[in-house]
Amino acid sequence: MSLITPDFGLLFWMTLIFAVVFFILAKFGFPIITGMVEKRSDRIDESLRKAEEADKAIAELTARGEKIISDAQAEQARILREASATSDSIVAKARDEAKEEAAKILQQARTDIAAEKESALRDIRRVVANMSVEVAEKVLRSDLGEDKKQDAYLDRLIEEVQRTQDKS
């Protein structure tokens, strides 16, 4: 019995065993194998479909996220513009109020200075008047020390008063 040239009996039994194994595999093995391959193929297809859906969802979320970011940046820019405008108006208002307050203080100071000046002038006039009276009193005492001089001075004053009354 040689393997290179098999005899008829060996070929018969080999063919019969092959047919039985093929029949068993065709009846029981191949359907299970093909079912498993189909299940795996279905799982792979399902996974690919889910991956595509996930890619679409990620793309949609990315687009939505970019839109939210751009909206947030636009809102931030708007808020910054409003804050800048508000800041400028507050600074301008404070500057105007400071100018008004400075003008009020300056006017009050001028009024106070004028009042102090008037008060000082009144004090100076009173002091000058008192000094003038004292000087006049001293001059009159020295000039009118004698009775004759006093009588002559009184007569002259009476005449001046009468002339003043006659004119009125």
How would you briefly describe this protein structure?
By secondary structure, the chain is mostly helical. It has 2 helices and no strands. Helix content is 93%, strand content 0%.
Question: What tags apply to this protein structure?
Answer:
mainly alpha; 0% strand; 2 helices; 168 residues
Can you offer a commentary on this structure?
This protein is mainly α. It has one domain (8-162). The protein is 93% helix and 0% strand. It has 2 helices and no strands. The protein has helices spanning 8-143, 147-167. The radius of gyration is 65 Å and the shape is rod-shaped.
Strand content: under 5%
How many DSSP-defined strands?
Answer: 0
Large-scale geometry: rod-shaped
The major beta sheet can be summarized as: none
Task: Give the helix/strand class.
Answer: mainly alpha
Q: How many angstroms does the end-to-end distance come to? A: 184 Å
* Helix and strand run: HH
* Helix content estimate: over 70%
Q: Output the number of helix runs.
A: 2
Averaged pLDDT:
88
Radius of gyration: 65 Å
